[in-house]
Inverse folding.
């Protein structure tokens, strides 16, 4: 169904004319589609656990397989973002969900010893289409909700999608525990792919006023905050997806865990990280995304320091505990950073003299264009994590070198968050919607509580 009039910032439209009800219905089925997409994108984090010596692929080769899935999933986020306006949110969700059949069926056909590494690589590359679902889903839901609820809505949408990572790992654990093979995991997902496409067709809507705006895209590309937020999103979402893909393989390679032992531990961190993502959005709604993001990066640095100690001591309990904490923090940071994006662009619109719905519309226009770019760059962080781990294991035989790099990176992210968004507040507390007299210069383009 195409919706001709959509004014979520209008309280009467939202509460009395059914806007909230329609938005929440679309959110539910957007979460379903994105959830299945994340599961398909994460398939190779499970498939590599099944690939024993008979497959003839070493640890470095397995890290490279999951890296390529991450790479494609990040790159396709850009066209997926613009596809929402081109085809409509409902229509594109149906198409994107249907495309998930391609990597699932392809892997089902070839998943056995004796298959060439290049064939496995092609199948891993195909699963990247699942990563694109995130960008189109977030862009679509961003258009449905008013600014005051974006942190919660985007956090819930993304968190429900992110849970696809631990769910596919739980399915893998169940299959391994039952003595089944990798084709069983793949077979489980085919009907769910079909279900998500059918539900999108039956229950979702498209907003006719959402159109691709080349001017907005150009403005988003030129705006330094698009790239600053992309950098911060590398630290949050890039860490989540990178660790989610690599954790089981690290447990096998560095700590000698069997596939079953690794699978028993792999899903816990991604599950908790996914569940707390909406909490990160809610905290950002209440206290300001920049404050929550800064505290989060500091805590991620501390947790990574513990990971380094655990790696040097070869302490599996300490290592797993610290990594679970890292996953939780990446989830919180995902929610808070995504809350910042629409807040930043609306604050900039108001700093230029726009007010009310005009400022909100301008914020939606630019943040919608920026989200695809930010999501794509953030996804590349997962590629960086897997390549860093691959290099570290090849060079020193453990992941310690990579963990030290991650520790330094989180320190830089914390500094950037503080300097750009907290050190010199301007004139507005976007999280609460209250205008204040600012202490800084509006031309500095620095914002508090975005």
């Amino acid at each position: 169904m195409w919706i001709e009039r959509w004014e979520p910032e209008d309280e009467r439209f939202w509460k009395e004319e059914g806007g909230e009800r329609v938005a929440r219905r679309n959110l539910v089925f957007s979460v379903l589609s994105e959830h299945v997409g994340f599961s398909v994108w994460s398939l190779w984090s499970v498939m590599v656990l099944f690939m024993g010596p008979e497959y003839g692929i070493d640890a470095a080769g397995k890290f490279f397989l999951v890296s390529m899935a991450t790479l494609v999933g990040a790159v396709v986020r850009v066209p997926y973002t613009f596809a929402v306006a081109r085809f409509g949110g409902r229509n594109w969700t149906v198409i994107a969900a249907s495309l998930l059949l391609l990597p699932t069926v392809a892997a089902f056909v070839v998943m056995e010893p004796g298959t060439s590494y290049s064939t496995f690589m092609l199948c891993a590359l195909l699963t990247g289409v699942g990563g694109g679902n995130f960008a189109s889903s977030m862009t679509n839901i961003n258009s449905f909700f008013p600014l005051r609820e974006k942190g919660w809505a985007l956090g819930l949408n993304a968190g429900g999608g992110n849970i696809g990572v631990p769910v596919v790992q739980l399915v893998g654990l169940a299959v391994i525990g039952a003595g089944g093979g990798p084709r069983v995991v793949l077979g489980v997902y085919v009907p769910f792919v079909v279900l998500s496409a059918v539900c999108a067709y039956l229950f979702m809507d498209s907003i006719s006023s959402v159109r691709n705006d080349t001017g907005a895209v150009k403005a988003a590309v030129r705006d330094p905050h698009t790239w600053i937020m992309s950098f911060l999103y590398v630290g949050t979402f890039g860490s989540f997806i990178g660790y989610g893909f690599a954790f089981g393989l690290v447990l096998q390679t560095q700590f000698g865990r069997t596939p079953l032992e690794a699978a028993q531990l792999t899903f816990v961190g991604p599950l908790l990280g996914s569940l707390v993502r909406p909490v990160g959005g809610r905290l950002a709604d209440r206290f300001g995304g920049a404050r929550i993001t800064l505290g989060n990066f500091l805590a991620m640095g501390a947790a990574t320091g513990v990971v380094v100690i655990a790696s040097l001591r070869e302490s599996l309990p300490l290592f797993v505990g610290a990594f679970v904490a890292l996953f939780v923090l990446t989830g919180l940071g995902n929610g808070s950073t995504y809350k910042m994006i629409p807040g930043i662009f609306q604050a900039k619109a108001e700093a230029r003299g726009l007010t009310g719905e005009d400022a909100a519309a301008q914020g939606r226009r630019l943040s919608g264009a920026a989200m695809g770019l930010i999501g794509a760059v953030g996804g590349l962080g997962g590629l960086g994590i897997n390549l860093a781990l691959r290099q570290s294991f090849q060079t020193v035989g453990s992941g310690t070198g990579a963990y030290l790099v991650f520790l330094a990176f989180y320190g830089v992210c914390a500094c950037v968050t503080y300097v750009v968004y907290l050190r010199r507040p301007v004139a507005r507390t976007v999280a609460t919607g209250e205008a204040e007299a600012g202490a800084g210069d509006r031309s500095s383009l620095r914002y508090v509580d975005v």
